[in-house]
Structure formats: C-alpha cells, structure tokens
Amino acid sequence: DAETLFAFGMARSRVEAPNNRNLSEAIQYYRRGLELQPGNLQRKHELLDLYSNTGSNAEAIALADDLLKGDPKDIAALSAKAKALASRRQFAEALATSTQLNELAPTDIEGQGITLYLMSPWCLNKPAGEILGRAQDLLKKHPNDPRFVLLQGLAYHCALDDKNAREKRGETVVRVTHD
Description:
The protein has 10 helices and no strands. It has helices spanning 2-14, 21-36, 41-54, 57-70, 75-87, 91-104, 109-119, 128-141, 146-158, 162-178.
C-alpha cells in the first residue's frame, strides 16, 4: 500500500549509501506511493525535498508546478522551484519565482537571499543600486531584526562591495550577541 511505500522511502532516505544511492531509491518509493495516492500533498512535499537534495532540478520544477496549481501560495514549492530554476541557469524565471516567494513570505531570509543572488553580477547583473536598495528597504521594514542586517551584508557582497559586506557581517554579530 502507499503508506508502506512512503515509510520505506523515508527510511531509505535516512540510511546513507555511497553516491547518495539511498536518495534515488527513496525517490522511487515515493513515486510509486504517489501513483497510489496522487493527492497526498505531504508526501509530494517530501518528494520535492528529495528532488531538491539530489539536484533533480527538472523533476523539482515539474513537481513544484504541480503543487502550485493546487496552491499558488505554496511557500515550499516556490522556494524549491526558484532554487531549481537558478541551478538550471534560468535566472529570469527564477527571479520571478523568488520575487513571488518574497511577497508571500517577506521574512523568509533564504528566499530574500535567493532574490539578491539572482540580481547579482553572477546571474542577471542588475545594477548595484537596485540590489542595495532592495536590502535597504527590507531593513527599514525590519529595523530590529539582525537577520536583515545580515541580508544587507549579502546585498553588498552581491553588489561586489566586500568591504561593506564584512562590516555588515560584523554589525550582525554585535547585534546578535547583545540581544
């Protein structure tokens, strides 16, 4: 039955094997289980995590799209899709997805970081002022949250200003140790 397949898949994912063979085997169990229970959202999310962890980007994008058809505000699906698109160097689509994620989950630091990275010279090469302005706007909205100071440091890094990036990292450490 499906629950047995999911249990095998979960167990297999936790027992490491050379070359992550355990994860590819876990994926097969989850796929078979979802053939029997195609509407099981929890298990689809677990499979999505496995795809993301194994770099199965095409599969992650397809499954995320399937999940987003049912719930366009699915944070986990948006995050996985943005990362998978970025890994496939589909930066414009990844930025659109991460921006949607940021609107739905503005305090998701990882999602905000993905957006800044996609704007960087390594991806879409947005102007430094746009990258820094985005981080500054976020910091204004969350002035007492050291995670947003750290995010500003990432923005400086993405704008190729390593001096200010180091200063913001230091400022984050000071804020965190005093809180």
